[in-house]
Design goal:
4 copies of one chain form a homotetramer. Chain A has 175 residues and is of the alpha/beta class. Chain A has a single domain, classed as Rossmann fold, CATH 3.40.50.360. Helix content of chain A is 42%, strand content 23%. Chain A has 6 helices and 8 strands; from the N terminus they run βαβαββααβαβββα. Chain A has helices spanning 15-29, 56-67, 84-92, 95-98, 116-127, 154-174, and strands at 2-7, 33-36, 70-78, 81-82, 102-108, 131-139, 146-147, 150-151. In chain A, strands 1, 2, 3, 4, 5 and 6 form a 6-stranded mixed β-sheet that branches. In chain A, helix 5 (116-127) links the parallel strand 5 and strand 6. The N and C termini of chain A lie close together (10 Å). Chain A binds chain D through residues 9-11, 13-14, 39-40, 46-49, 78-85, 87-88, 90-91, 93, 116, 120, 123-124, 126-128, and chain D through 9-11, 13-14, 39-40, 46-49, 78-85, 87-88, 90-91, 93, 116, 120, 123-124, 126-128.
Chain lengths: 175, 175, 175, 175
């Protein structure tokens, strides 16, 4: 089983990158394979710009999604929904790669908790024929709950474990 | 396998009732068990009204949901979302009955097609821990596509077959 | 100017009723007229039930909405969206009463803050042609921030003042 | 009065550009000023990429938004919501430019009509303190209703007139 992780942050430096790293650690501990799409190394084109339809970056993203068993999306909430960076990655994917694929959702917010980014990502994934698991996590208040390079808040950390376990179980059952 | 069908129309007389009848016919043809909750015979209390917490009607609804393998929700769209009648049924249910339960969604609209009722029901079901399948149907334009006591539009009819097949398959895999 | 207040709780006994009372106090202090629709005294019929189309209760609700300058909706969040009790009231209203009417939105949640009930009410009001003001309040954590018969949390209380001031200002400008 | 138009298509070549052109014609006929942000000439940075915080392109977008009286957003629907190109423009804006600003919404879909892109843009604009007018238009079925360089479907064309008139009227009243 291989889990693809997409981040709506730029690369892996910021808060989303930290959460991606935490997810990676947990998958490694379970012996589950993973891939991380580096959107700072593999720059996706704007849709419609010259030559965008023959982009190697898009092909790489599509190949990663096709060959993965499940996906975890980690997006910051910008103005009440997923970042344009996350949406750009989803814009380039299609039912060809995502139909019936199990997906787990995580969002990071600067302020108070809210599920609207999760709701909008769930909506897009549904549109693409994917099966989002019911477990989801909104991490509020910026870096408050992210210390020592991982999710330090015990409740959020437990919920991430539950999300990953559920994703792996449902992926296994649906395969 | 037993599929519970909830309708957001009043009883089974109107357009929703007709769609419920069509779903029942298809389940019968497949030899799949089903239950229909008659919200006109079993009147659910308003939440908060005197004695509502000991309601036999609520107990019946909860027992039906608990003992079903999967659920199909059929709601009219009123003012851009599910009817109060559908919401009342969902309000009385909880994670105890719906957690991990596969759900299929159907909406009926008086005018142009739209998914907002489906989106809102999907949101509520997620909140209750259920797993809504990606297939869904919005039946537009009132009775236009409902003739001879069934969904007469071939495309919508095919999509209902696909929805039911997917629901049964996913229910089987997740059980 | 007359502001109509609708509650998604049952009557005025619970947390929503307390918030309605707080809003009433603030309107009185400003010398602004108000009406409160008592959904426990004036029982709206289920849509579709016998004789529902000639209901006096519905007529009363419609008259109240028509004759008001603005509306404030106060709903509990049940399973991620407005209560069926709030939806029933909105189901019985139409563009005839709500087109271009300014609306302010308040939700109450048992747990963590979230805007999904506000989002769904905003969606319905838009559908009905109303103009929801951008200010809105989600009151989290049950009774925690409701003490001494009013909103006791200073930040939430200030935000309610801002919401009411904005509603009155926009109502005045749009009239 | 100056209306800013943002498009979620790439530049002004495609279907969104055609609709932008139609809106421009109507504003010109009314003698209303307008600006169009050319996202193909003024390339916005990805949020977080090196030097993004000092971008001239971002400054130009913010200045345009600040100096406009109202905004019209025209986005394609990609996978059930606004394009990443539209979201990138909204991501770079803030309450500083959009608070209390009246906004009108238009979406273009390849297939069946749906309001989900409009809903999500409305949600983001609310978050930014803007006041979206209730009138909105979803243009379905690709180029079907776009002929001779304008919206050729009479109903959709009339609705665009109504949207523009309402936007100008509400902008005038709220100013």
């Amino acid at each position: 089983m291989v889990v693809l992780i997409l981040t709506g942050g730029y690369g892996l430096e910021g808060s989303c990158g930290l959460v991606v790293g935490d997810i990676v650690s947990r998958l490694e501990q379970k012996g589950v394979g993973y891939r991380v799409f580096r959107n700072d190394n593999t720059i996706l084109p704007i849709i419609g710009e010259p030559d965008c339809w023959n982009s190697d970056a898009v092909k790489q993203l599509k190949d990663l999604a096709s060959s993965s068993s499940a996906i975890i999306l980690v997006s910051p909430e910008y103005h009440g929904t997923m970042s344009s960076t996350m949406k750009l990655q989803l814009d380039w994917l299609s039912k060809d790669e995502l139909s019936r694929k199990p997906i787990g959702l995580v969002s990071l917010l600067g302020g108070t908790s809210n599920t609207s980014t999760l709701n909008h990502m769930r909506h897009v994934c549904r549109w693409l024929g994917a099966i989002c698991i019911p477990e989801q996590i909104a991490i509020p208040e910026g870096r408050t709950h992210l210390e020592d390079g991982k999710i330090s808040n015990p409740d959020l950390s437990n919920r991430l474990d539950t999300l990953i376990d559920s994703l792996l179980e449902i992926t296994d059952k649906l395969s």
